[in-house]
Protein: Multiple sugar transport system permease protein
Amino acid sequence: MAVTTDSVAARLVREPRRATRSRQRGRRALVGYAFIAPAVVLFLVMGLYTLVYSFGLSFAKWNGFSPSWDWVGLENYRDLLYADPRLAPEIRGAALNTGLAMVAVSFGTVLIALPLATLLNSITRLRGTLRSIFFLPYVTAGIAVYYAWRYVLEPDGAVNLALRAVGLGSLARPQGFLADPDTALPTLIVIMIWGSVPVAMLLYLAGLQAIDPAVTEAASLDGAGAVRRLRHITWPLLVPITVAIVLLGLRDTMQGFQIFLIMTNGGPAGHTDVLGLKAYQQAFFQSLSPTLGVASALGWLIFLAALLLAVVNARLLRGQR
Structure:
């Protein structure tokens, strides 16, 4: 009987404690929800709402000021793809430039970042200093870098002066590299590679440092030279990192247009137009023309392309595991 009474008393003591702990957990949960509520509201308003709004706008004509939309169905998409005799060729040209930039930037980044990472991995002194120097292009403010590049690429800029000084005046461009139709897009691609190499180099450096030195030493003892070690040992282990670098470069180049806007604004004569820049121009540089729907439609086409690229990215990365 005493045991039963004691167990009942102990249960009566534990139940209020459990209730107190439950209330405390509930209060902590409410505090947590209160902290994340502003971010959730901001996402719902600035993210989800604008996403749905832009999707609806892609089926309408609107200039941003008229009180109502003019619903046109799929007309905006047809105009972008083939129907508009002026806009459709511009979009195809911008898509071609975007594709060229995506491929060139992604693979150019790999071709430069891997040797730099190998060089950094092979030295011990000043490694941190060199790593900071190589990483400088990435941490420098983008707009400041773009204006600096514009300055050195002008007709009387440092690049033309340097070419003439070393006897390569035939390579100089009297109108500047950004104003020449033959060099404008390649020049921007080079600048984009210059800005994307630092992150890729650090990823490769991390991958190289993760390789067991005993493996490469054993290969050296077996008579494998540097090229064979790179081909049969180092490169296969770096393939997953390479896939990630290439796919991230493809995505960033497809969605980004800031460098094209600041440095050339699509010129000369549309030779540096890209899809993101065309969407921006259709939205904000058409006076009062009802082109916001066209801009939204183009934005959704870019989104679908990016989504397809993300699916390919996920499948390739899953296949490397």
User: Anything to note?
Assistant: Residues 2-57 form the longest helix (56 residues). The chain has one domain: 85-319.
